[in-house]
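WARN retry 2 of 3 for item q-0093 after timeout on previous attempt; input resubmitted unchanged.
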Amino acid sequence: MKVVKTASGNKIKMSRKEWEDMGKKAGWMKEASDAFEEAKVKAKALWEEGKRDEALQVMRQFDPSLTADDLEMAINPSAGMTAQDIE
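OK item q-0093 returned
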């Protein structure tokens, strides 16, 4: 991490690793990761119950551009494959 002087004032520059290490120490990286894992479990359960729109809304809080096809491939990777693809 370093402090850089700019015309508009001082700025702090740091690498992604430094940013992630700081987040892990502060606890907010783990919280975000836990929230994402919980959302994936909830979305998968909703998807399997046939509640596809609800599952999509749960995951769109993390990626607003997510499509139903994207979610289906994430939940069931073989969903987009045909018998020829598997052979």
